[in-house]
Amino acid sequence: MPTRWSFGAVASALTVALAALLSAAAPAFATDPVTLDSAYVLDEVDALSTSDEAAANARLADLYASTGVDLYAVFVDDFTNPSDRNEWADAVAYDNGLGQSQYLLAVATDSRQFTISADSSGPLSEDQLLAIEADLKPFLSSGDYLGAITTAADSFETALTGGSGGGGFFAVVLLVIVVAALAGLVLWIVIRSRRKRKADPQAV
């Protein structure tokens, strides 16, 4: 079975201390590794509104259509059994049979942790995945979960295609311009040649 990598920002000492204080003052909630359903987004904690969840699923479907890569997103309150976010995300990936072109973004909204689980033989490198994680962090920190998913899809698309996704359109436009320029040049040469023949004296 291929090895999976997991990436996740390490919490600072202040964040850990704050989380400990909050857990002492409030009842703890946690979620075991989950079973994915047919949708790309599994929201166990209502982190997304109904419309946002629909938009997120549509964007992730578009990502698959353009790259052949699946990105699943799971939102829970906290990770448990295992409690380590990387092990938790990898457990979900293994239990659901995710392959080398299938990625999992796992987010714990209460403990404010996240990670991306990826097959080590997948199309994205470790550096690319770390860069994607950095793109997501501001959105997740501010609770903009739809923004995080949209940004993840955009970043995956850019990393996989080597551009912003609009490269194909501009290539077509450039090709049309080149063809038009060549056609214009040929037409100019033909017209110039005809005019030159008319200007020459006729043979006797």
Quote the beta fraction. Answer: 5-15%
Largest beta sheet: strand ordering: 1-5-4-3-2
- For this structure, what is the CATH class of the largest domain? Alpha Beta
- What is the string of helix and strand elements? EHEHEHEEHHH
Would you give the CATH topology of the largest domain?
Answer: Diaminopimelate Epimerase, Chain A, domain 1
Helix content: 40-55%
CATH architecture of the largest domain: Roll
Mean of residue pLDDT values: 81
Radius of gyration: 27 Å
Low-confidence regions: 9-29, 164-173
**Total domains, how many?**
2
| CA-CA gap between termini | 89 Å
- Strand count, sense and closure of the main sheet? 5 strands, mixed
Shape: elongated
Plain-language structure description:
There is one protein chain. With 204 residues, the protein is an alpha/beta fold. It folds into 2 domains: 158 residues, Diaminopimelate Epimerase, Chain A, domain 1 (Roll); 39 residues. Helices cover 53% and strands 14% of the residues. A 5-stranded mixed beta sheet has the order 1-5-4-3-2, with helices on both faces. Helix 2 links the parallel strand 2 and strand 3. Helix 2 packs parallel to helix 5 and helix 4 packs antiparallel against helix 5. It is elongated and about 85 Å long. About 15% of the residues have low confidence.
